[in-house]
Model the fold of this input.
Amino acid sequence: MKKVRLGKTGLMVTKTSFGALPIQRVDRATAKSILQNAYHAGINYFDTARAYTDSEEKIGEALAQFRHSIVISTKTAAKTKDQMVKELDTSLKNMKTDYIDIYQMHNAPALPDPEDPNSVYAGMLEAKRQGKIRHIGITAHRYDVAWEAAASGLFDTVQFPLSYLSDQRDLDLLNRCEQYDVGFIAMKALSGGLCSSAKAVFAFMQQHPYAVPIYGIQRQSELDEFLALDANPPVFDEEMKALIERERVEFAGEFCRSCGYCMPCPAGIEIPTVARLHLLVTRSPYQRYITKEYYESLKVVDQCLHCGACSSRCPYQMDVPSMVRKQYDKYLKFYEEHKGEVE
Done:
């Protein structure tokens, strides 16, 4: 499989890499099979996080025997140095390893103070001296944080959303990372499922050789699709460019990226799904969304407390309750038009 240099880390990682957030949703046997199949197919880079419930453990169970042939990155959302040290030790234990290739600050709200001896960053530097981590990275959903991080000299990698729905400033960030030799790890390559064509996603990423996309995978069929695309890369032709342009126009403005940082909701609303529900039902197989049971489960939207907690946590600074309501109201109309198809 094609490999690319991940910036100043010097690590050679597969251009088709594995995002391990989704494997927390499947049982251990399934996760082990998918992870090992990915490894045997040639994928050598796997990204996870301490926050992804048992994802790290599943990586440890599946890939510990191949540890020195793979690159692993994980993340900490710790707020203190002491908490970071504990989380790092847990990650090492979970993944049955004595080092992490890339240890990342998870969704950092701001850059750290490199002069603070008690900061999470100071703890990372100490862990690097001890050999527990080899490179320090940062993940962000806030553009200003990622932009500053690229030129700060503090980080070896930046992880940020990038898909064919991205605008020019996101591509400017990618170019900035290349300018400073900071590895660019592209998350949300399918924009939380809103990109309608995996083929177009793959072709788009091939146009940006410096970006390393970590495709979120939880099914063997998804892995097979990306392996097939890697084996026979699609041509980025005019038809594909036209599809991408249509979808960029459709998603111009605000839309939910499904990052999940708005959760949990005190009213029990599954915000990342409901906030883009109408978009999902009109862009993917919709039958499971129009069963009576699913329709009934969504009535919790009417219990929204308008507490503002979700909006305060949204890294894109969006009016989340308003977005949820609009998408839900559009869904209700769609449901009335199509409910007879599954009754």
Q: What stands out?
A: The chain has 14 helices and ten strands. The first helix runs from residue 28 to 41.
